[in-house]
Amino acid sequence: MWLSEILDRHCQQRGDAPALAENGRVLTWRELRAAASGVAACLASQGIGLGDRVAVYSRNRSEVLVSYFALAYLGAPFVPVNHAMPAAEYGEVGKRLDIAHVLGEAEALSRLGLPTGSTTSFEDNEFQRAMTTGEPPPAPATGMDDTLTVLLTSGTTGLPKGVAQTSGALRQATLSWLAEVKADDRIRFLNLNSLSHGGITLTFHYLAAGATVFVQREFQPRTVLRALAEHDITHIWLVPHMLRFLVTASATEPVPLPALREILFGASPITAKLLADAARTFGCAFRNVYGMTEAGGTFCTWLWDGTDATRDVPLESSGRAVPGIRVGIRGPDGHPLPLGETGEIVVGSAGRMTGYVADPGATGEVLDGGWVRTGDLGLMDEHGYVHLRGRSKDLIKRGGQNVFPAEIEQVVGQLAQVREVAVAGVPDETWGEVPVAYVVAEPGAVLSRREIAKHLRERLASYKQPARIDFVEALPRNGAGKVLRRELTRPNGASA
């Protein structure tokens, strides 16, 4: 079983080295394995065992990762849940996925209104004692082909689905990533994204490499900057809007970060302006992470550090396939398309999901002959870089012409006064559907609709021009940092 192998290997080779750190509390590899073993015994005494799906409902904290390792020992698939998920939505998810038990923070658990005995609080004395009892590790209850976890999709177009992933799939995805990035045990990795969605796989990748993983419960930019300096963080993993906050905070409170080597970002595109600002601010390398929970995590990436060695990297792209993973572009008939033509991005990976829990219909729509249909539209250039054009569900059909939101967003994002932009389709009596641009301006910027429209007319065909440009204070996002376009197109979703 992959997670127990990670613990055993590092206990053998670097048992007293730090594995997990949070707010001054550090667990060595031996202490992490002992904590996971103790929690596994504690949960087993409550009747949790093989095949029981257990939700983990909490902010980022050490106990979350300990729980994942503990549940893996028991063969109880863990189901990470964002702590901000409303009780009503959790009720639907919990019923559909047949959740047997819920672990998490007391405050979050209290919102669910679940029966006594069906939850365990991290703050509970018995749970905390279990973290330090020093129980010997149990024999793993499952093998590589058994379900390790059920990861929830981001739910940008509806309720989240449960993606079943085996230990073997996670191992394959991990080995592919490590072959690409050459990670080692000198890395000090701070994950600023939630430990409750598909991005958790990236944290497991770096743990497998022996990195020290740092956890923070809240994202507060100045606190993060101080943590980067105090703990000599080498790698951070975030979404672009978090990076923007860090750049802004650093402008008013500069913090030297000589140890910082790489900033990883994903979930949404980064603007050229933000990348340039961040490069000037932090002076490190940047890595784009493009993946999908159903495909097993990351399947494309690029690395850019501003030197001649990476000057030819097309920064508007999503990168190239990592080792061991195939990426292709297919047309509507399912056949491969030539380079440069836009179609659906498909992924062939041994790390892919086994299916959606309790949803064979949706599983059949996504898994196709060994390939995962991403639902993303894009093209591949002559060097293998994938260029996104948007989600197929977001494709705007204007009078029979295909309009890709990402193409308009990239052009609008070239304006220095633009902080963020999202494009969505709205119904139109004449054309059937037309694009509307929702723009967040930089603070204090003097920016007009006329200026944006002129910039677009000079660069895009007439049918790609937005029918309307709305200024908004912020773009609505889900817990994974992805823009919720449907929220923008609802009445009162944007300001005129």
TrEMBL record:
Transmembrane segments: none
All residue ranges annotated as the AMP-dependent synthetase/ligase domain in the record: 7-356
Organism of provenance: Amycolatopsis silviterrae
Record protein name field: Class I adenylate-forming enzyme family protein
Annotated InterPro entries: AMP-bd_C, AMP-bd_C_sf, AMP-binding_CS, AMP-dep_synth/lig_dom, ANL_N_sf, ATP-dep_AMP-bd_enzyme
UniProt domain AMP-binding enzyme C-terminal: residue ranges: 407-482
